[in-house]
């Protein structure tokens, strides 16, 4: 049999959610040849070698390789060509059959697939005819409880969106930090993207220029009375509010929603200003103060800050094509990552670093903030789940609170703490995730989401069920 010449193979790391994938590039191969390749027909071509950068190729955000998912299956992916080239189109093959084509460098679509193991071949080609391919397999099963929880939570949280775009915490309050987290979860449901964009516009329209500390781009909490929204001239933190909005913007971009991407492309200046909120309170150890006048460096806030800075760098690279800004914010993120990792205390994370630079360790018998903070570094990607510190901290957490998946922490704290299950998901602990989701369904979903379930809990819970559906956090 004849073979294709100069096939560039680039192995990919095994997915933390199971399964594996391969990514490779076939230069100068025209789209018309793709079905022939998939049927095993050889094509001969003599081509010059092409150096393939690490970032070049097809990136599949959803579903994860090896995941068990329900039908319809949501596919979210993008493709990047080498410098000087442009991705013209992308195509999905399911079991060697053409299932979907889009003439763009990204896609976001849902496909009805038969149950069983399905072989996915996702391809993209650029303006020179070079083809980029990623293959993986998924298992399509019934949606079950996870899709039901996801849909019910999405529908419930949508009621808090107001006509001006605000997302209420409770009827008389807008807490932008909580709204950001709720909206991140809403980006996982394409039906909610109009509300996500409306919230982003509200946030942009209410930025402080400057705030009471002289910083531009911060956000206050608001009260609402008779439809009138009034700033409180304060907030819980400056770092976490900014960070979670940056993460929201990146998740909205990753959704592939056309309107979201069009809007985000207009925000280069504003996002830079919001990124500056973190930069202006970042200290020489890489960590940020909670607020300019509250000089405590929290593990939670700085983990969120790291994620926000890294996500902002991704936006500058992918949405704005600004490599200089991307490098700038990646450097700030790395500095913060080093600062957070320096908060490690043998088998657990310090809860915060005080004004004098002392690390304050957790009392693991105290749920908030001590024990619950332990999942933040892995949840925000400061350390991967394979890191020994992530594993030790998670073990210490589970030893201290073995009953957390059945809400044992309610003896100290009445809230559902859905973010903790997302930390368990980040660790790949599907057993505890399943137990917790079942507990939340019984306690909150089935009775119609009674208080203290609120918008941020909804965002985290949507993400947990999204993870169990094989679509990632």
Per-chain topology:
Layout: E1 8-11, E2 22-26, H1 34-38, E3 57-62, E4 68-70, E5 73-80, E6 87-94, E7 97-102, E8 106-111, E9 116-126, E10 131-141, H2 144-157, E11 173-174, H3 176-186, H4 193-205, E12 222-225, E13 228-231, H5 239-254, H6 258-264, H7 268-281, E14 297-298, H8 299-318, H9 323-341, E15 352-353, E16 359-360, H10 367-371, H11 376-379, H12 388-400, H13 418-426, H14 430-445, H15 455-468
Parallel strand pairs: 4-10
Antiparallel strand pairs: 1-2, 2-10, 3-5, 5-8, 6-7, 6-9, 9-10, 11-12, 12-13, 14-15, 15-16
Helix pairs in contact: 2-14, 2-15, 3-4, 3-5, 3-15, 5-7, 5-8, 7-8, 8-9, 13-14, 13-15, 14-15
Range of helix content: 25-40%
Number of domains: 2
* Mean pLDDT across every amino acid position: 89
Main pleated-sheet profile? 7 strands, mixed
Subunit organisation of the chains: single chain
* Structural class by helix and strand composition: alpha+beta
Please count the helical segments.
15
Radius of gyration equals: 23 Å
In whole angstroms, the N-to-C terminal distance is 43 Å
Number of E-type strands: 16
**What's the CATH topology label of the largest domain?**
Glycosyltransferase
Q: DSSP strand (E) fraction?
A: 15-25%
Architecture of the largest domain in CATH? Alpha/alpha barrel
The CATH class of the largest domain, by name, is: Mainly Alpha
What attributes characterize this protein structure?
473 residues, disordered N terminus, alpha+beta, Glycosyltransferase
């Amino acid at each position: 049999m004849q073979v294709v010449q100069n096939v560039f193979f680039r192995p990919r790391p095994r997915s933390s959610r199971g399964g594996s994938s391969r990514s490779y590039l076939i230069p100068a191969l025209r789209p018309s040849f793709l079905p022939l390749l998939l049927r095993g027909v050889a094509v001969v071509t003599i081509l010059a070698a092409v150096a393939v950068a690490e970032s070049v190729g097809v990136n599949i955000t959803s579903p994860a390789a090896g995941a068990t998912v329900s039908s319809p299956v949501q596919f979210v992916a993008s493709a990047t060509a080498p410098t000087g080239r442009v991705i013209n189109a992308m195509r999905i093959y399911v079991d060697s059959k053409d299932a979907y084509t889009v003439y763009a460098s990204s896609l976001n679509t849902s496909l009805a697939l038969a149950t069983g193991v399905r072989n996915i071949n996702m391809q993209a080609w650029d303006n020179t005819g070079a083809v980029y391919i990623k293959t993986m397999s998924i298992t399509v099963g019934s949606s079950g409880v996870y899709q039901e929880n996801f849909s019910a939570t999405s529908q419930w949280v949508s009621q808090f969106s107001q006509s001006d775009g605000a997302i209420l915490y409770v009827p008389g309050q807008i807490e932008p930090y909580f709204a950001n987290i709720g909206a991140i979860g809403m980006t996982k449901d394409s039906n909610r993207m109009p509300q996500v964009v409306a919230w982003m516009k509200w946030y942009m329209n209410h930025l402080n220029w400057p705030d009471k500390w002289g910083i531009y781009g911060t956000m206050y909490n608001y009260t609402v009375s008779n439809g009138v929204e009034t700033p409180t001239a304060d907030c819980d933190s400056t770092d976490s509010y900014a960070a979670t909005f940056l993460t929201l913007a990146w998740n909205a971009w990753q959704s592939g929603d056309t309107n979201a991407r069009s809007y985000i492309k207009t925000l280069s200046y504003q996002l830079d200003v919001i990124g500056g909120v973190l930069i202006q309170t970042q200290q020489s150890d890489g960590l940020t103060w909670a607020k300019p006048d509250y000089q405590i460096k929290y593990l939670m806030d700085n983990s969120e800050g790291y994620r926000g800075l890294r996500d902002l760098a991704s936006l500058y690279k992918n949405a704005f094509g600004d490599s200089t800004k991307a490098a700038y914010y990646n450097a700030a993120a790395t500095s913060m990552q080093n600062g957070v990792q320096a908060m490690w205390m043998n088998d657990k994370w310090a809860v915060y670093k005080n004004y004098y630079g002392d690390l304050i360790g957790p009392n693991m018998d105290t749920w908030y903030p001590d024990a619950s903070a332990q999942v933040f570094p892995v949840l925000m990607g400061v350390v991967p789940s394979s890191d020994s510190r992530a594993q030790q901290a998670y073990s210490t957490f589970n030893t201290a609170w073995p009953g957390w998946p059945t809400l044992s922490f309610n003896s100290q704290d009445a809230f559902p703490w859905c973010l903790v299950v997302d930390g368990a998901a980040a660790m790949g602990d599907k057993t505890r995730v399943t137990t917790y989701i079942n507990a939340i369904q019984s306690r909150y979903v089935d009775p119609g989401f009674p208080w203290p379930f609120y918008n941020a809990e909804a965002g985290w819970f949507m993400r947990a069920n999204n993870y169990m559906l094989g679509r990632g956090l």
